[in-house]
Design goal:
The chain has helices spanning 8-34, 44-66, 72-78, 93-105, 111-123, 127-136, 138-142, 149-172, 181-195, 269-280, 311-327, 344-354, 397-401, 434-444, 457-460, 464-477, 480-499, 504-517, 526-551, 556-585, 588-592, 594-602, 608-616, 621-629, and strands at residues 198-203, 210-215, 218-223, 241-246, 254-259, 291-297, 336-342, 362-366, 387-391, 415-416. With 632 residues, the chain is an alpha/beta fold. It is globular, with a radius of gyration of 29 Å.
């Protein structure tokens, strides 16, 4: 499914593999000679020549790809634009001025009216004049709705080349032991891949057989300096905005807009873009000729720490709505448009729909943290002519937490699609899983081929209900902005429980410390927190025991009996862990007599010296207890 097989790293690895094979051939020939069967391995000599020659060519191509260098006129040629007039200095200034007048006139117009005016102006130019405009102002032309897509692709290619040259020079001055080196290198490699062709699998119209061809990548948006600088110590770059098109946008019967979630940036855009290939491909890996996919990273995605804050979704929703309306002038009037949103991107899409983005035919929500507290069913969108679908894979902690409202997979009026073997938060576009086949069915309008599911949280994963209860417990006691402050801590805890790295009792300490750090213990007293954790832990133990007993052939009555025993035992074990935390949280009375507390803990064979040393360093009692229970 690789988006770009012309990747220098991959080419060099393949060349090295060929070298290893070539080195084996002389030994094989000697062995054949000893056995007097040299005539039987005559093909080894031409194979050796082929391997050596091909390895040299692969390395040559890798060197070229590592240092892409293309003039603006080369970018024009890549997308079929004539370069004659554009070569004249200042040739595009006249057309750039004309475009600015159009933008000034329609500055306050709605996105589609503005895009229509831009389209009329640009299409009124000759191809030579259009090319000159691209070279004169690629940053504006490349990101302007209404400009014909081929011109935007060429303009953004010029901008990417310039950004690559700039960042490559910067990278050469960054020490390899600097925190900024990896992110800077990843940015340069990403830009290099954007300039490299992608390898596309198509069906030969003459033979009907699958074949490959290399084609330039097509970017509708490229704003490398847009968005926040997530971590200035790790990189001096903003997250950036970018959108890529697969297929022919202007002739496609079906157009898909893909909207990503948190932590997506320009430097890791490739992993998101690969999902677009998976959506456009059929089961045999051949791309649909009548479809187009836009992988749209056109908003400033949050990091994990602010993923519970809806602010970026509200801004992103407005940007998505404007983009959909603006790009619409470049689509066929009868093209079917679908939105395929993942994770926080489902909240962005919900905000766009509520802002009036009603010109879509189908919407799929995948791994959603909720669509906003005001959206509790599909009818709340008031879009009766749009098909809505939802997916929740077993083990998807983001859906379980419902950080932004009810999970659309639980809406009574949504069509919930089966994800089959997909698990967790990131498998929806995996080409080997059923989930992507359902996505392709929605994309192509093949609704009869879709498979649905109606599983409960407990059927999907033991503990899923309890994760949702834990988040709900906090949401009941805290204001939305206070929950948002805890968001960066809640997510890894939920992920840890889903992955099996921690249980609910293990979560007690981190949750307490998070509440303490954010001065929220008055809203969630430690006693209530630890009691809730104990309850959740015992419920999980009961459910897991019941499930295993039934799977082992026990009767339902026996399974219920053992589940009850497990619940009681688990509660007792949970209290062994959480009671010291609760006692310590009550204040200095427990701290002053640490020896008495140590005797209690010693029953569990715990190292009380660790606890005392932590207190001596100035830790409060609960923090010291957490150190004791988690010595590593």
């Amino acid at each position: 499914m690789g988006m770009v097989l012309a990747d220098p790293v991959m080419l060099e690895k393949l060349a090295a593999s060929m070298d290893r094979t070539a080195k084996e051939i002389p030994a094989l020939r000697r062995k054949a000679s000893e056995l007097d069967v040299l005539s039987e391995v005559g093909h080894l000599s031409p194979l050796l020549s082929y391997l050596n020659e091909t390895a040299r060519e692969l390395r040559k191509k890798a060197r070229i790809l590592r240092t892409p260098s293309e003039s603006p006129f080369g970018a024009l040629a890549q997308h079929g634009l004539p370069a004659g007039l554009a070569r004249r200095p200042g040739a595009g200034k006249e057309f750039e001025t004309g475009l600015k007048k159009v933008l000034a006139k329609y500055e306050t117009a709605v996105p589609e009216a503005r895009a229509r005016a831009v389209k009329d102006y640009v299409e009124g130019l000759t191809p030579e004049q259009q090319a000159a405009l691209v070279v004169a102002d690629p940053a504006t032309v490349g990101n302007l709705d209404g400009v014909p897509p081929p011109l935007r692709f060429a303009a953004n290619r010029i901008s990417i080349q310039r950004q690559y040259d700039k960042e490559k020079r910067l990278l050469e001055s960054v020490p390899q032991d600097s925190p900024a080196f990896k992110r800077s290198r990843d940015r340069v490699l990403a830009l290099q891949r954007f300039l490299s062709p992608r390898r596309q699998k198509i069906e030969d119209p003459k033979t009907g057989k699958a074949t490959y061809r290399e084609i330039p990548r097509q970017f509708l948006v490229f704003e490398p300096d847009a968005g926040d600088v997530a971590d200035p110590s790790a990189a001096p770059f903003a997250d950036g905005k970018i959108a890529e098109v697969l297929g022919d946008l202007e002739t496609a019967d079906d157009v898909a807009f893909r909207v990503p979630g948190v932590t997506n940036r320009l430097d890791n855009f490739q992993s998101f873009a690969d999902g677009g290939v998976a959506l456009l491909e059929g089961d045999k890996g051949v791309e649909r000729p009548d479809g187009a996919v836009i992988s749209w990273l056109g908003y400033d995605t949050p990091e994990l720490g602010d993923a519970v804050d809806p602010a970026k979704a509200e801004a992103g929703g407005r940007e998505l709505r404007a983009f959909r309306r603006g790009i619409g002038v470049s689509l066929r009037h009868d093209a079917k448009v679908g939105i395929f949103a993942h994770s926080y991107g489902t909240l962005v899409t919900s905000k766009a729909l509520q802002e009036g983005m009603d010109d879509v035919d189908k919407v799929v929500f995948m791994g959603s943290p909720g669509l906003g507290p005001n959206i509790r069913s599909i009818k709340d969108f008031q879009m009766p002519n749009t098909r809505f679908y939802a997916m929740r894979a077993p083990g998807d902690a983001v859906s379980y937490t419902q950080g932004h409202g009810p999970d659309p997979a639980d809406f009574p009026d949504v069509t919930r699609l089966d994800t089959e073997r997909a698990f967790g938060h990131s498998d929806y576009y995996d080409p080997d899983k059923r989930a992507v086949r359902n996505l392709r069915g929605v994309f192509a309008g093949e609704y009869d081929s879709l498979t649905t599911v109606d599983s409960s949280l407990d059927e999907e994963m033991t503990g899923a209900t309890e994760i949702r209860r834990l988040v709900g417990f906090l949401q009941e006691r805290l204001a939305p902005e206070e929950v948002a402050r805890l968001g960066g801590d809640i997510d890894p805890i939920a992920q840890g429980i889903v992955s099996g790295r921690m249980g609910f009792t293990d979560a007690a300490g981190p949750l307490y410390l998070s509440l303490k750090d954010h001065d929220l213990l008055d809203k969630v007293p430690p006693g209530e927190l630890f009691s809730e954790v104990n309850s959740l832990a015992s419920d999980v133990a009961a459910k897991e025991t019941n499930k295993r007993m039934l799977e082992g052939g026990s009767s339902e009555t026996k399974a219920i009996l053992y589940a009850g025993a497990a619940k009681a035992a688990s509660w007792g074990l949970a209290e062994v862990v959480t009671q010291p935390l609760e006692v310590a949280a009550k204040g200095t009375r427990a701290v002053n007599n640490w020896t008495q507390f140590a005797e209690v803990l010693a029953e569990g064979d715990l190292n009380t010296e660790t606890w005392k040393k932590s207190l001596d360093k100035g830790s409060d009692a609960v923090t010291a207890t957490i150190d004791l229970l988690n010595p590593f």
